[in-house]
Amino acid sequence: MEYANIIVNISHENLDKTFQYKIPSSMQGILEVGDYVSVPFGKGNKIINGYVLELTDSPVYDPDKIKEIEEINTDNRLVEYKLIKLAYWMKKRYGSTMINALKTVLPVKRKVREKEEKSIILKIGEKEAYERLSIYLKKHQTARERLLRELINEGELDYKVVTGKLNVSAATIKAMEQQEVLSIKSRRVYRNTVIGNKPELKLRLNEDQKYIVDSITDEYINGYRGTYLIHGITGSGKTEVYMEIISKVCEMGKSVIVLIPEISLTYQTLMRFYRRFGDKVSVLHSKLSQGEKYDQFERAKKGDMSIMIGPRSALFTPFENIGLIVIDEEHENSYKSDSMPKYHARETAIELARLHNASVILGSATPSVDAYYKALKGEYKLFTLDKRAKEESVLAKVHIVDLKQELKDGNRSMFSQKLRIMMEDRLEKGEQIMLFLNRRGYSGFVSCRSCGHVIKCPHCDVSLTRHINGKLKCHYCGYETIDRSTCPECGSTYIGTFKAGTEKVEKAVKDMFPYANVLRMDADTTVKKDSYESILSSFSNREADILIGTQMIVKGHDFPYVTLMGILIADMSLNVNDFRSGERTFQLLTQAAGRSGRAELSGEVVIQTYNPEHYAIEAAKSQDYKLFYSKEILYRSLMHYPPVGHLMAILIESPDEETLEKYTTALAETVKNDIIIDCNKKSVSIIGPTDASVKKINDIYRKMIYFKAVDIDSLILIKDKCEMFKEEHYNRKVRIIIDMDPLNGY
Ligand code: ADP
Ligand code: ZN
Ligand code: ZN
Description:
alpha/beta, GIY-YIG endonuclease, Rossmann fold, 34% helix, binds adenosine-5'-diphosphate
């Protein structure tokens, strides 16, 4: 390459303002993207610094007038240097433009106003506080009780946390202020979302935990860096292990990034980190504004804190010296980005760790097949925790109910005999129940029993879902229409829904147990900000007996009084047309089982299914990950699916069906020829082009081409070809989306 495009002023708005320089022969083959260089700039040729964003052979103007790069600065410790390198790796690995990759990793610069925020402090002594508490208890003032309890624990609480996560109203706070139980004070914040002042008691690690901590820290101290996978059942004390290792790494003057899926960024988990590490910790919620995020990143850069906790984007915290990256619940789908570049946080973390000479710890109760495969191959080091850390808590007992048999026995309801009897028992004892319904999208579609016609969204080619308010709704675009009593195709009146949605479950439960208090949590009841937390907190305060929900309820959160988990139809996620459906089903069922009986009371789980003999269900019954893995990996090997092989999905979209057809065919033909020339020895197979499984969304048509290969490098090569084709056949009406090792179907 002869030229380098260089950015001299890094900021989001300037990313496309690059200047071109000639690469002197002494730097040929040495200069890389991301390098920090000095260049002569402007009329006076003042020497300034910049970063290399691109290497190219095509000059943008008269080659004689292009100036040369002065020198490569060797100060590679700079944060930007590593982030640009990372962006370049992401662009190459996952496919995207350099600008999009840079926008993903570089913080958005925006002025932030200093915020004035309120916090709540306990105004009375501990003894008096406990007297108050018993009064609130007697009067059933649950919100006051909840707030006071938390204040006794913490001393001081952020006002927003109290009204949000703790779900205590402003009026209640006011009333308690008038009782002189608490006072509200204003403080200038340099923003920590939660504050606590009680140090966490360090637990004595058990033998198994200690072994992991010692192994990893010994290696660390001896200069070895690696990727570790901790396979530990729910409640086995993984978080304690992370915290112990984190504190050792921090002692060595390094920073740490902890990734947690958004859904488990719960108050409880965060408090544990705050109590242990205090001000060193900062949290990156996706709910933070851009300004707040930038503010956090600035603090990280200045070294004001050294532990960043957050969802996948927390990876791009501009720490100068990262020593460790922890990814909890490593198997979660939310670690994969849904916009280009469609990076996976696990692989990206490993690359980032390489740039910083850091280690990576992955943890999960149900590791992804991908991670476990790599661990067994020796790419990651595997550790296992197979006992719960608190001795008194035991794993739940799991029962399987065959729904086909129920039907034969004449039971047409969505509750098996067994589940109904067990629910009755828990309600009598005053213990709590969770009912888990797998996946909203698969429930409640309306079809005709006479002709089989399914009512679909006119814009999206997906079935509409019936809601109890009498409307039919599209979950892709929000389209709504009135419900029908006759089939639009054949006029038959035998038209209706055949699968249960959460609303329907709620209704059935209320019919069966009119005296029970029921809460429902799904995408519809949690649209409002913080409603997710407030439903969870009122359930954990035992304001309801039964919580009904979709996958949201099976993650995070400890509910000590839940002793029964009912999984209504376990198969829904098995029937999804996706090679990972077995894995997902096993994960969901195992997690759901882990929700029951975490504390003193032992729990039971009922899995209702039409496929009791499926290995994912059988393995979930015995909560046996290895059994599941051994079956699953056989199937993946046979089919050359990831992690044994690799898969790349190319989605091509256009509002014009004919343009799309032609474009896709041409793309597929070109790439096919290239494959024969370039990688005929490597086994690459091409599937498609075909219609995407949702053929149209919002009036945009969609087609797919899949490529399967044993090694990722051939796929990267094919990806480059597709990107080249896209550049050479630019079409304003066509969009191409590349997805390496996709987690979701299209
Ligand atoms: P995981 O992250 O694997 O789900 P946690 O670290 O959250 O597990 O631990 C589960 C529970 O056990 C927590 O309440 C934690 O405080 C407790 N715990 C963890 N380690 C120990 C230990 N060594 N001794 C006593 N309790 C422990
Ligand atoms: Zn019909
Ligand atoms: Zn729609």
